[in-house]
Amino acid sequence: MNISSPDWAGELQTALSREFNNAPRLAMLATADVSGHPRIRAIVIRQFDADGSIWFVTDTRSEKVRQIAAESSVEMLIWLASQRIQYRIQGVAARAVDRVSLLRQWDLLSAKTRTMFVWPASGEPRDDVAMAQATPPSEIPLTFAVYRVVPSRVDFLSVAQPLHVRWIASETDRWVRHPVNP
Question: Positive or negative CA dihedral for 8, 10, 13, 19?
Fold first, then answer.
């Protein structure tokens, strides 16, 4: 039986709230490096839209920025341990350049997180003195970037007992869920 809807986005939003409450909502973001090798890292979901779009922020000096510029297709994994469910979301990541999106995300960051955007670049030698002396910038720095991942395919898996449940839905299929074997 096919269940038609982008209801998965509402269900995921509810599951995220239940899992993380007021804690940061984490996801794994997978990209490919210039050699085609997979790269994965944790990101904080900064915004989740009704259409399933996922927003995150990053430092423009990070490898993921260069990787997304070269190949915008990404996959995200959201594992909700207490509920024993996972969402794998394939989509296209695009950098937001409009001032409204940048300000909206910047304004939601804590002062401590804002300060990270004036630290030395990720992967550079650690400079504890510079990091300790850094203060939150008063303006949005050029190192701040906002990305939106627009989903094209969702693979859901519940490993809760007694039976595992899995379905796949895609935008090209008008988000109709197709049950598949786990």
Answer: negative
